[in-house]
Amino acid sequence: MQQLNAAGYIEPLDAADYAFDDFFPEFQKFPGHWQGDTLYSVITRFGFLGVAHNIDVLSEKDAASYSVFADQRVTGKVGHFDWHLPNLGQMSLAAGNTSAYDIDDAGWDKLQEATMAMRGQVGGFFDYGGTFSLLNDGQMLAFAGIGDWITGVLEKNGAKVRTTIPEEGGLQWTESFSIGKGTANYEMARKWIQWITSAEGQAKSADMAAYPALVPNKKGWEMLNADNLAEAKRQNMVLGTRNAMDMIREGRIQYRQLPVQQSLEDWNDFWSDYKGA
Fold first, then answer.
1. Mind giving me the DSSP string for 58-82?
2. d(CA 204, CA 268)
3. Are strands 34-35 and 42-49 parallel, antiparallel or unpaired?
4. What are the residue boundaries of the structural domains of the chain, listed by start?
5. If residue 238 lies in a helix (H) or strand (E), which one and from where to where?
6. Which controlled-vocabulary keywords does the entry list (predicted)?
7. Which of 89, 109, 149, 202 could form a disulfide with 217 if both were Cys (CB 3.0 to 4.6 A apart)?
8. Helix (H, G, I), strand (E, B), or coil: what is residue 176?
9. Strands (E), the chain
10. Considering the domain 52-171+253-276 in this protein, what is its CATH number?
11. What is 193-208 written as a DSSP string?
12. Orientation of helix 199-206 relative to helix 218-227, angle to 10°
């Protein structure tokens, strides 16, 4: 989002047009979506990335640490979703870095060492379709770089897979809407963002068939709890109990982002070296 804004591709938005008062406080002025007091993008959905695992082979307790990727039960059956940012962010946490993406040279060395140590366990690097099918049929028993946005679809259709957030922490992906610079359909786009961030839009969006997600609007949670409590429970979105928001508030979730102290090319080059090792 910051890159699109820096390139001048998106329009500023009027914050008063959107129901931020209904959002959890953590999302009312979400990082990267504002420039000073000017809004450029509205968060609509988010989710966590952790250890995706076959629950017939690995329990949630097993998957409570990234060290499970070294387990002999999954040798040759650990998959990577083929994108360096989520995978290396997870490996950064696994290596003991406090920040997943803002790391100095020593932290970068630790990340690379921890990642390379995992290479012998890995059965391949896959796109969305490959990740989906290989988890579904049990050819891969654990996956790095993904979360409930994939395993949730499979789980809801009866597959024995789940995503567990390890004790070392997980990452958050974020889905947001902006309006393109110079669009002829600004008003239509504005109304769409208003609807998708309303309670009704949020409840429907949370249970989207293509891929489920958490949502920032608390009233959307209330509607999902009322209309589909089973899905609210599955996604850890039940109000009045310990839920997904507690993981954020306890500091167990970090935002997926660009590397801070290395270049994006540094990370991409290492990912290519790792894949070829």
1. S-TTGGGSGGGGG-GGGTT-EEEES
2. 36
3. unpaired
4. 2-47+173-226, 52-171+253-276
5. none
6. Signal
7. 202
8. strand
9. 34-35, 38-39, 42-49, 51-54, 78-81, 122-126, 142-144, 161-164, 170-177, 253-255
10. 3.40.190.10
11. HHHHTSHHHHHHHHT-
12. 60
Residue 259: DSSP 8-state: -
* Average pLDDT per consecutive 10 residues, the chain (277 residues; last block may be shorter): 82 97 98 95 98 98 98 99 98 98 99 98 98 97 98 97 98 97 96 98 96 98 98 98 98 96 98 98
Cα angle 48, 235, 49; round to 5: 15
Instruction: Name the nearest CA neighbour of 174 among 214, 144, 202, 142.
Output: 214
- Token code pair at residue 70: 């070294």
Domain 2-47+173-226: give its CATH superfamily: Periplasmic binding protein-like II (3.40.190.10)
Spatial distance between the Cα atoms of 113 and 104, rounded to a whole number of angstroms: 14
Instruction: Please indicate whether the domains covering 2-47+173-226 and 52-171+253-276 agree at the CATH topology level.
Output: yes
The one-letter amino acid code at 1 reads M
